[in-house]
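User: I'll paste a sequence; please echo it back and then give the predicted structure.

Assistant: Echoing your sequence first, then the prediction.
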Amino acid sequence: MTPLNFWFDVISPYAWLAFERLPQALEGCNYSVNYRPVVFAGLLKAWGQKGPAEIAPKRAWTYRHVAWLAQAQGTTLQIPRPHPFNPLALQRLAVACCEPGSTPNRRAVELLFRHVWCRDGADPNEPVALAALTEMLAPQRDPANEDVKQDLRAATDAAAAHGVFGVPTIECGGRLFWGQDALPMLRAALTGDAWFDGPDWDAAARQPEGVQRPS
């Protein structure tokens, strides 16, 4: 059984789409998944990037794109208002659903994603709904405790140090696959596609840098 690491932040519609699609995309494969909550904004800061919603035309495209992808793969997706929102409460809740050093199970992660993307555009941080979700998940630790906050910060820092720059990112055999649209490539790697045994994976990453924009 091949272990996969799935880094996610529930703020990302692409992470929700990839999470929902994963069992179908990898049907027939022998694998297990460790779901690893991180803070997308922390990754953006680590790599000096802007998020899609911070660039006006890209924001409009992103919402159109994920709406189309959702209907194409048959996944419910209703953009919450506001979006982007502050996902810290939900990501800390994900961390709190397991003991230190462990990762939340798929059921817990699914409930977190559905809380964001399947509630008719409701605010994910609405206190009554958030309290109901917390009660349903019955976390093993208090999400407000400093150890949970520190674990989430450490997980985000460790992910960035590992080369994770966005969500979703899935690791298979030491290789990182970014984005919902990388699922077919992930499946190919998982099923022993000969391309991954040749030089192309490493050679593609050795492309020399081109012209640099002034900072």
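The first strand starts at residue 2 and ends at 8. The radius of gyration is 18 Å.
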